[in-house]
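User: I want to check something. If I give you two sequences, will you return the structure for each one separately, not as a complex?

Assistant: Yes, each is folded on its own. Here is the first sequence with its structure:
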Amino acid sequence: MTTIFEKIRELETIPSYSKHEQFVQGIINAIEERIIAQGAALPSINVLIKELGFARETIMKGYRELISRGIVESKNRQGYFVANEDTEQTLKVALLMYLIDSFQEQFYRNLRHELGPNVHIDVFFHHGNITMFETMLHMIKGKYGVYVVSPIPHPKTKHLLELLPINKFIMFDRYEPMKGEFNYVSQEFEQSTYNILAELAETIRTFDELIFFHVPGSLDPVEIIKAFKRFTKDFKINSRIINEYEPGSVEKGKVYFTLDNSEIWKILKDCEVKQLQPGVDIGILSHNDEVVKEIIAGGITTYSADFSLMGRRVAQAILKKEKVQEIIPTVLIRRKSL
């Protein structure tokens, strides 16, 4: 019966192949010819050194490449295993996101398109739950060539992210500090929110009060709350923070600032009932832009990072294997609502 070692040795007859290429292609050939199947254990580094006479670094480099392509996975203290019989793929990416809303969808769609058909992406969701976040990270580590993760603001996050190989890790969306140099393509919340509110201050002053909806303990970035409080103090704006919008409570002379789309729709519905015109009788400011906000009620004023650009920049960093540390600019998009 043909062995993995024989499949690797067969390639010694190809002069153009380096020992690294012999090793990688030999393992691939063994999988394609069903000599070894998905889930099966591969020889240890020491066994391969003994059988093939290759340098330790050559074998380790070969295994690293096979892991990055999603063909092989490494399990702590157990060794290397066949992870996937699809040997045509060049790279396997783990994408760990909050959830699938319209903004994360923009990110994913552009990431997927930019990476192209030969890169495999597995998508996971943590829903802002630290226990689920930890479970997902333990589940995916050692099985992918690149890990693209949207972190949770939590004391355990830094430690959990350090379980991943730092050279294969890209943080996206929110930014959480970690030890040493690491890759990220993120948005910034506090100073950008303050700047946007300052730009809108003259218009906000034409109304009686600025109301911000925030549920304590929610996933809303705390930096936005800090910016709101600092802005209203610095600019002496009459303001309130309340937990949620109560249906039927819309009032003339108020500016409503919300991160929750469902509250916008409730406010607009009540405006129709009370015959109030957004941008005239009340103001509305929303975080994160999307197509529907261009159209509804003559247009909702938003401020947002470009999630499409974020997806493209992460993909480019993956494909070019380049270092990336980038904050995507936050842009105010003024429409009729404010």
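And separately, the second sequence with its own structure:
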Amino acid sequence: MTSQKKQIPKLDYGIVLTLMLMALVSLIAIYSAQASDQYLANFALQQVMWYVIGTIVLIVVMQFDSDQLKKISWYLYGFGLLLLLGLAVAPITDFTPYRNGAQSWYVIPGLGQIQPSEFMKIFTIILIAKLIASHHLKFADKTVQSDLWLLAKISFFIILPVALIMEQPDLGTSLVFLSIYLGMIFVSGITWKILLPFFSTIFLVGGTVLYLAIQHADLLAKVGVDQYQLARIYSWLDPYSYSSNEGFQLVQSLLAIGSGQTLGKGIGNGEVYIPERHSDYIFSTIGEEFGFIGGSIVISLFFLLIYQITKTGLDTKNPFYSYICVGVIAMIAFHVFQNIGMTIQVVPITGIPLPFISYGGSSLLGNMMAMGVILSIRYHYKKYMFASDNE
């Protein structure tokens, strides 16, 4: 009898192929968006550059195994916090400009705008995954007290970046962190005796705030909620009454997607004016020019990617990797739901991009970094199948 070891292929070609298809969709959609008279810059060519840089980042990140990621997790998190803190204390300059109502970027000569919060998402996911995995090794015998301590640690290291991001202010990105937070504590092993009242409280508070925004906005105004934030709620619920200001983008987006019908108007034939149609409203461009079929293909690609990440998380026997997969899924899923949802009036408008599709260097690099970590799981995880032959 002989035993033969066979190692499963290191590279997950399924995820690689999905990313390549998303890159193709992104370049076609951005090229189509810039065909209108709205833009003079060649965003499609710039997106190619960001994809090249992002691929290099992905390959580099893929070289790190779980032990190395754990060792550098604190350094990555601390570096991200320093970048966010720098924006919080920096005066408004050409290096740290105030744009689109927020001070969220560093401007690097020759490279462009860099948004630290996009990288901080994956840094935080890695750190939280390490905290959960290390906690369970230390507290093998779970108690309510140990679970409360784990919840407190996760909450603390989420609150720090969120507080700095809200200072910019950037509500959309803060909500992404909230999604990551909820997703990771959901699978953290914390007892439902804690999680059930915890989640109930969050949904109760969120529902109450939404109710007050709709029915009693004056009460929220008294506690410091800005009028422009309330206007976003009103323009979401009734965009046509606000079509000359806050509701303009949503009205145009609905018109564009609706006019695309089943097959769309064709590449470069967009007729509806939509601000930021190459970035935050890229799905509106896809809906108008490629129709219901084009939009369905994009959504299907995201379902496929999330399925592939889920399978990766289930296949690995390393809890640290599994928690990372959950964090990345929560991040991508919220981005997709929020971005597409805001273009079709399902959720209020927030300025977050569609992952891998929207134009934007920081967003793409952050997502490619996340996928580099996901690909490193299969790359470094040695799973062997044993075969026996009778002689």
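Because they were folded independently, the notes below concern the second chain alone. The chain has one domain: 21-190+226-386. Residues 21-190+226-386 form one domain.
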